[in-house]
Amino acid sequence: MELNKLKDIATQVRRDIVRMVHAVQSGHPGGSLGCTEYMVALYFHIMKHNPAFNMDAKGEDIFFLSNGHISPVFYSVLARAGYFPISELSTFRKLNSRLQGHPTTHEHLPGVRIASGSLGQGMSVAAGAAMAKKLNGDDRIVYSLHGDGEMQEGQNWEAIMFAAHHKIDNLIATIDYNGQQIDGPTDKVMSLGSLQAKFEAFGWHVIELKEGNDMQQVITTLETAKAASGKGKPVCIMMHTAMGKGVDFMEGTHEWHGIAPNDAQLENALGQLPVTLGDY
Amino acid sequence: MLTANWKLPTEKLIFAPILADIMIQDINILNEKDTRSGFGEGIVEAARRNPNVVALTADLAGSLKLNQFMKEFPERYVQCGIAEANMMGVAAGMTVGGKIPFTTTFANFSTSRVYDQIRQSIAYSGKNVKVCASHAGLTLGEDGATHQVLEDIGMMKMLPGMTVIVPCDFNQTKAATIAVAEHEGPVYLRFGRPKWANFTAPEQEFVIGKAQVLAEGTDVTIIACGHLVWTAVEAAKELTAKGISVELINMHTIKPLDEAAILKSVQKTKCVVTAEEHQANGGLGDSVAQVLARNYPAPQEYVAVNDTFGESGTPTDLLEKYGLGKDNIIAAVEKVMKRK
Fold this sequence. Notes:
The complex is a heterodimer. By secondary structure, chain A is of the alpha/beta class. Chain A has one domain (about 5-270): Rossmann fold (3-Layer(aba) Sandwich), CATH 3.40.50. Helix content of chain A is about 40%, strand content about 10%. In chain A, helix 6 (about 155-165) links the parallel strand 2 (about 140-145) and strand 3. Chain A starts with a helix and ends in a 9-residue tail after the last helix. Chain B is an alpha/beta fold. Chain B contains twelve helices and 14 strands. The longest helix of chain B has 15 residues, at about 35-50. In chain B, about 60% of the residues are buried. The chains are: A alpha/beta, B alpha/beta. The interface of A and B includes residues 55, 104, 133, 136 and 154 of A.
């Protein structure tokens, strides 16, 4: 898809995110806004996938969201990609909705293949799904997204060790490296040190994406990662993003990790994000 | 508990699920085998029948008797190292793609260590993972309380959608392992370490959720699971010799629970003893009590661990010390009958 069209989708997805979170006065706009380019690039340009959802995804690329709290961007992108009606975004976090606060298979929302929310579990799931693809002789790729703060969960390092040991080279895990978590900057809460050096020491091929909010760079990096797959090592993209990207007063701070804008703030935010595809 | 005077099988075998008019004195030991070896044979058979069956382990392939599986299906065997949380997630991921993963480690590391992983990635996600747990309970023995999980049945049965199975001997564990592979949905399969009386039929059909009535009687119902089923058989033989008519039920599936079998039996006998190698809190006994409280209140006595941790020792010594022996079942029967 053309770059301008992808950017237009990203702008609309950002509108969806702030409107969804505002409507129920809860949810996580910060990380969602930061990962918008990545999610749009994956679903509209990179992955081979079928919105007529099939859980097993044989012959398709798969995406797992490990940091499930950024469900607004996941839901918006799935809806805009045709997995379910765009109008359903208005049910986010409401009673009897398929769009739970954190993604789940329990309500059978097309596009979701695992529940996530309790952090640190998605890397293992992605590694398992990638291993199943190898057993099935399916050469498609498994993508996963993880928060940088989420790397504080020990299970990740079990999974990172496992994936390298078993040479799961059809796995591309991306870390949303925004340097923020709920209680503050990651360096203050629990220093991550060099994530890149850690992944490399565990035997992964690491690619740095310096501008994770630049659509062209995101696409180029994902294509580089695809080219690096199948060579005996799992691939990690260290994706530098700005939490809250696209809404100036939310950008670059942990303050907007998990709170919703009020009416005036919504108006301000939407003023920065023109309608491109039509609101839900 | 094990006794020295077991007879070799010359009489009729017990066929699941139910044979009418079975007498307790007809139940005899075939041999002594560990239930984990029943699992080891069962998973090989399940794998032969279904190419999607895969086995995962966390550095305990030998203890879980996966040797034959590894030999026959090396490409379907996944070593995860000492990292159980990851193993549960990998298993959940492998179901996406149609695999039927069997995770294997000790019961303690299959449950309490990885509860949130099972809860979110397997149970809530509705994944077709079989959590296979060996060395459950006190009969793990000398390794002591760190490894003797006595809370696992409770933890697993509380998870919505989780099937919980505790087979009683080698033959039944083998049959249950084959059966769970054919069942769609998450399963917790609990078995143990020591050689134990093997007395159910070698080629039995295992029906998930269908209680096995081992003996019919009218004075008291004993409902047991796992290793304690054989202990209950021995207790029932002594009680029968004393003139007490015992109905003995092997409740190999804790969830979904065969409520009809419980009610049918207790409506006849008017009292029940439950026996399990687990905490009284949250185990089989509590499941039975809940059914009775809602439908047909009746006196019940628990033979179970009473809110304490275990310790090192031989399996039989431990069962005796913690009140899970044959004599404890007999005493519980005598007590509960007086409460009628």
